[in-house]
Amino acid sequence: MRSTWRRLAIVGLACTALFVIAGCGGSDSDESSSSTEASSGTPEIGVDELTADFSAMTKLKDLASEGEGIIGVLLPDTTTSTRYVQYDAPNLKKAFETAGLSADQFKIQNAQGSTSTMQQQAEAMITEGASVLLVDPLDPGSGAAIEENAMSKGVKVIDYDRLVTGGPKDRYYVSFNNVEVGELIGQGEVDCIEAWKVSKPQILVMSGDPTDNNAKLFAQGYNSVLNPKFADGSYTKVGAPPGTWDPPTAATTFEQQYTAHPNMNAVVAPNDANANAIISVLLKNKIPANTFPVTGQDAATDGLQNILKGYQCGTVYKPYFAEAQAAAALALYLRADKTPPSSLVNDTTRDTTLNADIKSVYTKPFWVTKENMNDTVVKDGTISAATLCAGKVASLCKEAGIQ
Q1: How are the residues of the chain apportioned to helix, strand and coil, as percentages rounded to the nearest 5?
Q2: Pairing of strands 236-239, 106-110
Q3: Residues ≥6 apart with Cβ < 8 Å to 377
Q4: Are 163 and 185 in contact (CB under 8 A)?
Q5: Average pLDDT, the chain
Q6: Nearest in space to 107 (alpha carbons), one of 59, 75, 139, 153
């Protein structure tokens, strides 16, 4: 009996020893795995961190030091929107520099409305050693050609702000959810019609250039809000003319439509530049403030001032500092041959030409009115109170609590 208990005790001790050894081994393995993850050194950054102070970009300094080659940025023009000069170029520059890139490690150029110029700029960047290109195309066809050529030479590509439909399948897209942008425009029109007590709304629905995929998505968004109103008869659609991003063309189109439909008393405008052109026609026709709702997008200075004057209902504010940082961060991951985290690449976008989903980064848009202008665009530093409130709108700024 004593011998039996002795044998059991030995077996028990052996099992205990094996358990301890296995347990220690498992712990070592876990610690090793965790250490490997930590020591990989790839920082994570998420869209919610992309604030107006650019502080999140400092987390990417090690990533910037790992990468090689130039990051090239191709912007489209300076006429369809003031944003490219006023916001995109300086914000991208600040994002790259805050992450630790020197001036010779990135290049930002504007094609001034010329597809051939953008093509030449892209070729030059590739020749100079670009490893990543951010492309905001003038049209999908020319953008896709630039991207296909770049990828054939080993350069990674990112669609910036506009989806390059028909571009390479293995690319990324950085923008706002543009259907949501359109929904904000549509709801802004509805809210304004109610607030300004517009009786029997007779609405002209205007759009951006039909060759621009963003314009299609904006229209999808605001039509989803307005079509039920048209269908139940509470609103009347007087027309939906061909779209454009050219303000003089928008003004001419609106004037023709206004002459043809003198009962018109509201208009959906897809951005602030077109809205400002439309408002110039309203002023010429001596239409009083707070009577004829006009929408907008981009939080441009003239758009914000038109809101204060009572000629524009509101504008979609897309924090360009967030979009620029998202694009810069994504470019830095690709430049360093790292997979960007899901906290950054947070969605997909359907490329209907390819019938494929494109990995996407979406940042959040907001609807800005005189009531929240101070707490959004002014607070974020997108525009200073001094710039916004210059001249005749000074008293209106004071009434709106802008300081």
Answers
A1: 50, 15, 35
A2: unpaired
A3: 299, 304, 317, 368, 383, 388
A4: no
A5: 90
A6: 75
d(CA 162, CA 174): 8
Q: Model-level pTM? A: 0.79
Do 63 and 100 contact (CB within 8 A), yes or no?
no
175 bridge partner residues: 362
Tokens at 53, concatenated: 């102070």
* Beta strands 130-135; 70-75: pairing state: parallel
Cα–Cα dist 356/177, whole Å: 17
Amino acid, single-letter form, for residue 271: N
Residue 127's pLDDT band, with cuts at 50, 70 and 90, is very high
Contact between residue 309 and residue 393 where contact means Cβ atoms under 8 Å apart: yes
Say if strands 356-363 and 347-351 run parallel, antiparallel, or are unpaired: antiparallel
Q: pLDDT grade, residue 5 (50/70/90)?
A: very low
Report yes or no: 254 and 222 within 8 Å, Cβ to Cβ: no
Res 13 pLDDT > 70: no
* Mean pLDDT confidence for 255-267: 97
User: Mind listing the domains of the chain with CATH numbers?
Assistant: 47-177+319-364 (3.40.50.2300), 178-317+367-399 (3.40.50.2300)
108 - beta bridge partners?
Answer: 73
Cα 141 to Cα 116, 136, 165, 279, distances in angstroms: 12, 12, 8, 33
Q: How far is CA 315 from CA 145, 155, 365, 367, in A?
A: 33, 36, 10, 6
Q: How many residues does the chain have?
A: 403
Task: Count Cα neighbours of 395 within 13 Å in the Cβ-side half-sphere.
Answer: 2
Is-contact 219 207, C-beta < 8 A?
yes
